[in-house]
Specification:
Elements: E1 20-24, H1 28-40, E2 44-48, H2 51-60, E3 65-69, H3 77-87, E4 92-97, H4 102-111, E5 115-118, H5 123-159
Parallel strand pairs: 1-2, 1-3, 3-4, 4-5
Helix pairs in contact: 2-3
């Protein structure tokens, strides 16, 4: 069953709505620890333990960030990465694995992974990468909004 825990919080991220994060991790304890850490930091967190569930959730809901284990039952983390980047190009995808290889790192980067982390996760590095990914998404969103507003302004000026 897909766990859709979330916490609406006023910690840290008051200016924007809480970032929506999907965690697809086969290790239940690690999945719950990451979810709790993100919830108390103000993120809205959705979790699942297999790749098929992650694909199903990503097909129904938009996420700012997806954290996926490379080796998942059902569908691989690489499958999740490709699916999310095709359906939700603005989402940042972070791959985690306990069996890193330069081949999978290169493939993940080629397919659009924002970052690639090795287990066991280093807490400080993990949090910095998450914060950086969310800020990058917000900067992209702000740039896109500015371009849209500039286009509307040009259209209004042309009609006056």
């Amino acid at each position: 069953m897909v766990n859709t825990d979330y916490l609406s919080s006023n910690h840290g991220l008051q200016k924007y709505s809480a970032p929506e994060v999907l965690i697809a991790e086969k290790d239940k304890l690690l999945r719950l620890m990451m979810a709790k850490l993100l919830q108390v930091s103000g993120y809205r967190v959705y979790t699942c333990g297999d790749g098929s569930q992650a694909l199903n959730l990503a097909a129904r809901k938009s996420f700012d960030l997806v954290i996926t284990d490379l080796m998942l039952p059902g569908a691989s983390g690489m499958d999740v990465l490709k699916f999310v980047k095709k359906l939700q190009p603005r989402a940042k995808v972070i791959m985690v694995t306990d069996t890193p290889s330069s081949e999978t790192l290169l493939e993940a980067k080629y397919e659009g992974a924002y970052s690639y982390l090795r287990k066991p996760l280093q807490l400080r590095q993990f949090l910095l990468i998450l914060k950086d990914a969310i800020e990058h998404t917000r900067l992209q969103d702000g740039y896109q909004l500015r371009k849209e507003l500039e286009g509307e302004t040009r259209n209004l000026e042309g009609g006056i």
